[in-house]
């Protein structure tokens, strides 16, 4: 499961840098803390499926934990002649979870620093935890730190803490978007991703919610990526659906982030 990552925005970022999209799971497992977690793809689907297929029940346990066995994965795939990688870090967990120690978080970031040919995307719902230990972490230029928020309440709690965290590159993942989010009072990051819910029991996502976020991105020249619509009422999502006559899959320029 540290192989090819099938998340479309990770795939597109990898293509831009001439690399391969990959998962990296130094943290696995989590605890639901907000509305966006209701149908968590790892806790509800992926994790149990891996264990049913005979995968290591310790490594893929739903209880948040640090995976020592994953720490050498990016290093093993790094070298002057190796192909670059774009890693989705901890897609099955949250590095800011209280079960993960400060020292373990620092170690994860140091692996990123030691592998400057690779690009890293770290998403967290616990940005306040990351902000609290920011004085102990020196984020490298090849690491992008993002918040995940599904509704206005979560967004209001998280965006300011991300803005105050000293990291070279930041982004928002507003998914699964289950309510309107007014971003007009926020300082926009370098990249905004929006997507609907794909799991069983998916909640609806209104097109006008997406459009309002897109409009603000357009007026501020912020790259906007419309990942997918909601599976609500149809059982599956459409990847990169058209909005107002075009596909919105804009990317920042990641090429200057890697060597």
Describe this structure in words.
The structure is a single chain. A hairpin with a 2-residue loop joins strand 10 and strand 11 (246-247). This protein has helices at residues 8-16, 41-52, 73-76, 102-114, 127-132, 152-163, 207-219; strands at residues 20-24, 27-28, 65-66, 85-89, 119-124, 143-148, 169-174, 192-195, 224-228, 242-243, 246-247. It is built from seven helices and eleven strands. The chain is globular. It has one domain: TIM Barrel (Alpha-Beta Barrel). The longest helix has 13 residues, at 102-114. With 259 residues, the protein is α/β, with parallel strands linked by helices. 47% of the residues are buried. The protein is 27% helix and 17% strand. The strands form three sheets. It has a seven-stranded parallel beta sheet with strand order 1-4-5-6-7-8-9. It has a two-stranded antiparallel ribbon with strand order 2-3. Strands 10-11 form a two-stranded antiparallel ribbon.
State the secondary-structure class: alpha/beta
Mean pLDDT figure: 94
Question: Approximately how much helix is present in the residues?
Answer: 25-40%
In the CATH hierarchy, the architecture is Alpha-Beta Barrel
Tally of distinct domains? 1
| CATH fold field value | TIM Barrel
Q: How many individual β-strands? A: 11
Q: Give the strand line-up of the largest sheet.
A: 1-4-5-6-7-8-9
Oligomer: single chain
- Largest pleated sheet: 7 strands, parallel
